[in-house]
Structures are given as C-alpha cells and as structure tokens.
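User: Sequence in, structure out. Go.
Assistant: Echoing your sequence, followed by the structure tokens.
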Amino acid sequence: MLSKRAKYAIKTILFLKDRPEGKPISAKVISENENIPYKFLENILRELRTHRLIKSIRGSEGGYVLAKDPSEISIAQIMRIVDGPIALIPCISEKFYEACAECEDEQTCRIRKMFAEVRAEMVPILERPITAMDKEA
C-alpha cells in the first residue's frame, strides 16, 4: 500500500510541476492547496530537497520549486525516496533485495514468482516521467 507520506510527496511534486516555471511556492500554500498537514509537509519537503528533486528559494518571495525538469522525475523515484522499495516482497526488489527468511528455495517459490510478475508490470508504469500523467488524463 502506498504510504500517506509517499502520497503527499507525489502530490507535492505534481503541485510544483503545475506552477509557472521558476515561481517559488511556500510550504503553507502547498499545505493548504493539497490538504497536507503543514508539519508533515515540512519533513517531506526536507527529504525531497535532500534528494535534489526540489530546491528552496529564500526571501519574502521564496518557497519551493522543482530542481529538475519534470520529464526527469518519476513516481517510482519519489516512492523510493520516501518509502524505500517498491516491491511488495523484499526478495523481488532490484534496488533493495533481501532474501526472505522463511523461504527455502527462491527458484520454486510460487509467491515470489507471482509478485515478480506484479512488479514487472507495475514498475515500468511508475517509472514514466510525471509529465506522462498529463497525457493519460
């Protein structure tokens, strides 16, 4: 399940994407427009800034803007920053692989096989640039 934190991070990036290029938006405006609790949003903004998806502009007209072109940002990237692995079970994660403690043989595990199929279908969709979302609506 997508965490609330990841959902808020995605909403924040999409909100910033839709703003006029280069015009900073305050955390308060983002919080109010996207219905994200302000204190929760501050932590998300810090994390997105640390990973260089957004940057902050200081001053009275300051706020947040995207640090990258929207065509270089994907939902998968945001999810991995906020929540870590996208895979539903750790043994199929490409970036955060961990063997399942209870599994005796990954090659014959039916659960692993099914979730590998789910991941194979899901990840390419999540890795599309966020700009592709506008074309799907």
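User: And one key feature?
Assistant: The helical segments are 4-17, 27-34, 38-50, 75-83, 110-126, 132-136.
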